[in-house]
Design brief:
- This protein is mainly α.
- It has one domain.
- Helices cover 82% and strands 0% of the residues.
- It contains 14 helices and no strands.
Length: 258
């Protein structure tokens, strides 16, 4: 308990200014942006390291949320959740407006079309027929800025999501507008007002749901983006396998949107 209290004090010390800013910004934003804002975002390309930093920040905020909830400090847990949602909101807003990301989704669709009839080969890659595939995926996420443990976690979660519903993953790959529509739902949920986002902070089940919404969506998207530029490393089947597992993770997050 003493260790938890010390950690809680350390976390709280660095929160006051940054979280007040995040919460104020979250209260003022919504899913809509002006043409000028959209143009400004398109002028700053989204790179894998940018997405990686956003995902790490969200994971850190959510870990803080659980630490505070474990000590009964639900106000600090609430603000940690708000900070995670604010980062998710801003990142997903940029993603949904980014022309280069739209091209990545179109390329993913084209790659799957070109590999028509090879779904079993793709599934075999993901399921372990190619032993080095998981390791390559982890290394690519590390290059995007994720610590090893976090990279392993997101790769394993994406593989499990694909194995749970392969059909849904392939449907997202074949339909870029559906993929983008799912991300927009996640964006809109993340961009809710602080009062709405604060609900459920006392319930572990609600916190787990939000962790999946905020991390599976962005984590799956990061896998798609990173592997979309890695054809030389993975080859056509490997890139398609990456797209399938990344799409599956996004699909899991989207299914939790009510």
């Amino acid at each position: 308990m003493a260790a938890l209290e010390a950690e809680q004090a350390r976390l709280l010390a660095g929160y006051a200014t940054s979280l007040e800013t995040e919460v104020a910004r979250l209260r003022s934003i919504g899913p809509q942006v002006t043409p000028g804002e959209a143009a400004e975002r398109r002028g700053k390309p989204l790179t894998p390291p940018y997405l990686g930093r956003a995902l790490v920040a969200i994971e850190d905020h959510l870990a803080d949320m659980e630490t505070f909830a474990a000590t009964g400090n639900y106000e600090a847990a609430r603000q940690s959740k708000l900070a995670a949602a604010a980062r998710g909101c801003s990142t997903l807003r940029r993603l949904c407006d980014d022309d280069d990301f739209h091209k990545v989704l179109m390329t993913m669709q084209e790659q799957l079309t070109q590999l028509g009839g090879q779904e079993k080969s793709i599934s075999d890659w993901i399921s372990g027929t190619s032993p080095s595939f998981r390791d390559l995926e982890v290394e690519l996420l590390e290059l995007a800025g994720l610590p090893l443990v976090l990279a392993q976690t997101h790769v394993d979660q994406a593989i499990a999501a694909f194995q749970a519903d392969q059909t849904a993953a392939y449907n997202l790959m074949r339909n870029p507008m559906k993929f983008l529509g799912d991300l927009r739902q996640l964006r809109d949920l993340s961009c809710q007002t602080a009062d709405l986002l604060s609900q459920g902070i006392h319930r572990e089940q609600s916190r787990r749901r939000w962790k999946k919404i905020l991390t599976f969506g962005l984590g799956g998207t990061l896998i798609v983006v990173v592997n979309g530029i890695s054809t030389a490393v993975l080859g056509p089947i490997g890139v398609a396998a990456s797209g399938a597992m990344g799409s599956a993770a996004v699909g899991v997050a989207a299914q939790l949107v009510s």
